């Protein structure tokens, strides 16, 4: 087989894989536009005959999606801010000092990352309840998400810091800056891209977080969109078009951000690792 | 002359590793001092201790008469040029130059003026708006130098600043740095592993090995009277030949073992029968008529650089001879060479110290 033919074959395989992978997304978008009868038609239709645009407005209104999305935003921004403020310093220290304790610290951090949220939620719930944190459920969720996602952020940002040569900092010290000044003037601007990318990834994770929010937030008016979506579900659910419309509204902004920043995200993730 | 930098009894430990051993060094104001030695000899550690990037474990470190042991780098008023230049990549050349001034709160207009003045003397005027990534190696080197100059510090520290440049540019920058030093009347400490750089640039050369200062002094003093075998072999290129020898019965001659035993006369009286090492510089061995020389040596390898020919002998203890006159010498020839008694260096056979 010649090189071009092999490349073509590879391309076809890649396209098929991508189609399989992206099919649920496609199904979400078209189901949202189908009418009630078309939804259950056999054989299923792959393109809505009469797009039902009104579904979006109906779902937005009837479900109070504005409030849900606002809650999601509050939780996501809160988590990202908390993680960034605390994680950057932590990552910097772990990047600059090398000894046994740093290795042990990194190991423990990665351990935390391994534990699933559904396992962690019981002790977290009990602990928060003892502390009276359940009276501030959104704050409680922000703290829980921060604890859960911090390791991921620290590991990524540490790699970014390690790519900043130590000599630059030393030059700043000799030039007359303090350790703290050198960090803010020299290291931080150079690590900015890596930190930004990691923060965006954390944001997208936190925006879709479900387990902690569902468990900790009881009041409907404080729940994020992920929990709101779940409240559709019941034993006799049949309003798939409304659910898909909800999901579309919820997911499209995140997808858009990812597509727009995709190139930077990928380069930001690898720049620390390769150099 | 006042002392600008003084080190007395300085030791540095990294855990159990003894990196600097009892360093005694005083550097006069306005002098150019080179720290030279093989990698891992402690020369960079010593320089970083001067800068305050490493702390010293024991001893005293004074800059301009003030004790600096625990003073952070920013308060030492010294400037450093790094091997990688360490230019701030997110700042333009001008911002790189003025960074130290801006930290000290110098007004913007004044800092800009200072940058323009320095740039004019180092040929960077056209490049002030560029970023480091848009500069060539030589230009980056100049920015690093200018960044040090702009502050008029008490001392300049150079950490192998030329090692990333190509050979031609290195020779050029060597002169440029020395000229700059003279014009500024600065005090400079220059770390290098290249003894030619040290010899050509410095007023005072400090040879280090394993954290110990082996010898320090004027370049030619080190070349003419090396204190031990290590310094003798390190200073001078190609390196000095070392051959085992025994002092003759009269105490004024050496029986040298180069393949066959040969005798050379000495200009000093030594204890007869003492085992020593004779140090013969390649450039001090000269050709003589057959039968007139002290050595008759078979030729092994002949390398010609054009200006000089390096001849390595095919003897057990290899001897290199540098000959500037062109001679039709080829592998397998037998050559006759001689050396003046005053040019023979004698080192103790066991300690390696100069006799």
Written description of the protein model:
- The complex is a heterodimer of chains A (275) and B (355).
- With 275 residues, chain A is an all-alpha fold.
- Helices cover 79% and strands 0% of the residues of chain A.
- Chain A has helices at residues 3-33, 36-39, 54-63, 65-96, 100-114, 117-131, 137-162, 166-174, 179-207, 211-216, 225-230, 240-274.
- In chain A, helix 1 (3-33) runs antiparallel to helix 12, helix 4 (65-96) runs parallel beside helix 7 (137-162) and helix 9 runs antiparallel to helix 12 (240-274).
- The two termini of chain A are 37 Å apart.
- The relative contact order of chain A is 0.13.
- The model of chain A has no long low-confidence stretch (mean pLDDT 87).
- Chain B is α+β, with helices and mostly antiparallel strands.
- Chain B is built from eight helices and 20 strands.
- In chain B, helix 2 crosses helix 3 (108-122), helix 2 runs parallel beside helix 4 and helix 3 (108-122) packs across helix 4.
- The longest helix of chain B is centred in the middle third of the chain and has 18 residues, at 167-184.
- The model of chain B has no long low-confidence stretch (mean pLDDT 91).
- The chains are: A mainly alpha (275), B alpha+beta (355).
- The A-B interface holds A 165, 167-168, 170-178, 181, 185-186, 189-190 and B 51-53, 72-74, 78-80, 82-84, 86, 88-90, 99-100, 103-104, 147, 151, 157.
Brief descriptors of the model:
heterodimer, A: 275 residues, mainly alpha, MetI-like fold, 2 domains, 79% helix, globular, B: 355 residues, alpha+beta, Rossmann fold, OB fold (Dihydrolipoamide Acetyltransferase, E2P), 6-stranded mixed sheet, 5-stranded antiparallel sheet, 8 helices, 20 strands, elongated
